[in-house]
Amino acid sequence: MFLVGLTGGIATGKSTVSLMLKELGVPVIDADLIARQIVEPGKKAWKMIRQVFGEEVFLESGEIDRAKLGAVVFADIEKRRAINKITHPLIYSEIRSQVFKYLLKGEQFVVLDLPLLYESNKVTSYLYKTIVVTCEDEIQLERLLARNQYTEKEAIARIEAQMPLEKKCSMADIIIENSGSLANTRKQVDGIVKLLRSSNHHIYNRVVYGGMLLAFISIAIFLLFWYYLG
């Protein structure tokens, strides 16, 4: 099995591409979904956030007020680091768990949907290919304003707080241009899935890592015999 990274900028259409991949039967691990799940009431991250950030970022229901927490961490880099220190280890632990499950199921490849793929730089060395979803700057701003209740100034600040799309695209193996119609985007996704399914990289991984595992088992057996017979 091999891993493919999927990322993009805010409001470029990464979630749309992720959904298209799922519709084509591609297993996708969604880091955003995991991030929401790990902060559900009563869970470890939820308790740590309450301890670090206080009651003001929580709703009366006990759930985290994502808008308030987002505003707090966006305005203060130290608080952003604090929330990342709480959530990132738990997110990546769950990602590893899901990857292992897909490996046991015999999947050819899995897509990791990671908004901060290049920013965190924690998994890039494990990826066979990386995909960036991009669009024109004006369209990105229009989509963000339509999706969220931001002023134009707030929306621009959110966009500029991220790694520039141009830099992400320069680091990508595959680029999906999502400025046009859904049909055009779907055509690009179809082509990428066909390309990935035609790859033999999963066989290479099985040979290499299977050989390493076999060597490890052989050494372990030899050491056991040596211990009991020596």
From TrEMBL:
GO molecular function: ATP binding; dephospho-CoA kinase activity
GO term, biological process aspect, one: coenzyme A biosynthetic process
Stretches of the chain forming a coiled coil according to its record: none
Alphabetical keyword list: ATP-binding, Kinase, Membrane, Nucleotide-binding, Transferase, Transmembrane, Transmembrane helix
PROSITE patterns: DPCK
GO CC entries: cytoplasm
Signal peptide start and end residues: none
InterPro entries found in the cross-reference section: Depp_CoAkinase, P-loop_NTPase
Segments crossing the lipid bilayer: 207-229
NCBIfam families: dephospho-CoA kinase
Alphabetical list of HAMAP family matching this protein: Dephospho_CoA_kinase
Name the UniProt record assigns to this protein: Dephospho-CoA kinase domain-containing protein
Organism, scientific name: Penaeus vannamei
Species lineage: Eukaryota, Metazoa, Ecdysozoa, Arthropoda, Crustacea
